[in-house]
C-alpha cells in the first residue's frame, strides 16, 4: 500500500479575475457621464407665469449663462452659489471665456423671492455690461 498524493494544488491559480469589476466600472462610468451634464446648471425655482415665455431651448444650451435667484435670496451662476457683489465680475469672465456663445444672460427668479434681491441681481448683471437680459417664466396655459 503506497501513499497516494494529489497534485490538485498545483492547478489552482491565485490570479484575481478583474474582468467583472472592470465591466461594472465601465457601466458606472457611462451612467455618470450621461447624467452629469444634466445636473450641473439646475437650481430649483418656481418661475412666475406669463403670457409669453422666452424659448427655454436657448437657456438650456451648454454655453448659456443662467443666473438664478431662489426664494430664500440666494444667487446662483449656473450651479454655483455666488454673492451678488461678485456676480458682475464672474459674468464678465464667463462671457470673455465664451466668445462664440450667446451674449444673452438668462435670469430665473423664484416667484416668491424678494423683489429687492431680484433687482439687485439685475443691477449686478447690468454692471457686467450685459445688454441682453432674458427673464425666464413658465408659459401660461390658455
Care to give the gist of this entry?
The chain has 142 residues and is an alpha/beta fold. The protein is 37% helix and 18% strand. It is found in: Cell membrane.
Estimate the global geometry from the Cα principal axes: elongated
> Could you tell me the radius of gyration in angstroms?
27 Å
Number of strands: 7
- Measured between the Cα atoms of the first and last residue, the distance is 99 Å
Oligomeric composition of the shown chains:
single chain
Order of strands, main sheet, comes to 4-3-2-5-6
Largest sheet geometry: 5 strands, mixed
Membrane topology: Single-pass membrane protein; Single-pass type II membrane protein
Protein name: Biopolymer transport protein ExbD/biopolymer transport protein TolR
InterPro entries: ExbD (IPR003400)
Organism: Granulicella aggregans
Explain this structure.
The chain has 142 residues and is an alpha/beta fold. Helices cover 37% and strands 18% of the residues. The protein folds into two domains: 15-39; 49-139, Nucleotidyltransferase, domain 5 (2-Layer Sandwich), CATH 3.30.420. It has helices spanning 19-39, 56-59, 84-97, 115-127; strands at residues 49-50, 65-69, 75-77, 80-82, 104-109, 132-135, 138-139. The strands form two sheets. A five-stranded mixed beta sheet has the order 4-3-2-5-6, covered by helices on one side. The chain is elongated, with a radius of gyration of 27 Å. Keywords: Cell membrane, Membrane, Protein transport, Transmembrane, Transmembrane helix, Transport. Belongs to the ExbD/TolR family.
